[in-house]
Amino acid sequence: MKIALINENSQAAKNSIICESLKKVVEPKGHEVFNYGMYGIEGEAQLTYVQNGILAAILLNSGAADYVITGCGTGEGAMLACNSFPGVLCGHVVDPSDAYMFAQINDGNAISLPFAKGFGWGAELNLEYIFEKLFEGESGQGYPKDRVVPEQRNKKILDEVKKVTHTDMLTILKNIDQDLLKGAVSGAKFKEYFFDNCKCDKIKEYIKNLLA
């Protein structure tokens, strides 16, 4: 699995802590981590939590990533931004039980974490425990076990509802504010990671022309 990490500007300084905790847990499981920043370095392209959502949607809808780890100060803004787009099902995760139940009940492809609120002593341990529970075995298996059938049915219903309530990603890319979009894909590592992993030729071509 390709896992993308995206930090917004207010919490960029914590990127290395988050990335190290994520890699420590998921790389032994055979997953790859692609750190799209922000990295907390001077002069880098800025990402707001709205742009986190745009970038997450581009990566997931193009196949450049299979899962997105993102967040902001409270985690709420990035979660709302992610869920504004098709093909993204993002949960707000504060602790390991949130992570486990979101994976097993909702079977999403992104989480948003609070990187300021409650981020004190043991923050890196909480991150590790969250990532352990998030990527523990196969997701979508239900919890508790007597709720497996209705939960899996509801997830399929939600997926179908999102297909109706959201337009396709390419149309969104064409209609969204182009400066806002360009800012979302201007990170130092974006071109290297995205173009090597993108599986959608139409999205790849549009982004390539945007950045030309």
> Could you state the order of secondary-structure elements as H and E?
EHEHEHEHEHHHHHH
Unreliable stretches (pLDDT < 50, length at least 5) are none
Q: Strand order of the main beta sheet, please?
A: 2-1-3-5-4
Binned, the helix content reads 40-55%
Average pLDDT rating: 97
Number of strands: 5
Question: How would you summarize this macromolecular structure in one to three sentences?
Answer:
The protein has 212 residues and is an alpha/beta fold.
Could you give the topology of this structure?
Layout (H helix, E strand, L loop, with lengths): L1 E4 L9 H12 L5 E4 L13 H14 L4 E6 L3 H7 L7 E3 L3 H11 L3 E5 L8 H12 L13 H18 L3 H7 L2 H7 L5 H8 L3 H11 L1
Parallel strand pairs: 1-2, 1-3, 3-5, 4-5
Overview of this structure, please?
Helix 2 packs across helix 3 (76-82) and helix 2 (49-62) packs across helix 8. It is globular and about 50 Å long. The two termini are 29 Å apart. The protein is an alpha/beta fold and 212 residues long. Helix content is 50%, strand content 10%.
Features:
globular; single chain; 212 residues; alpha/beta; 10 helices; 5 strands
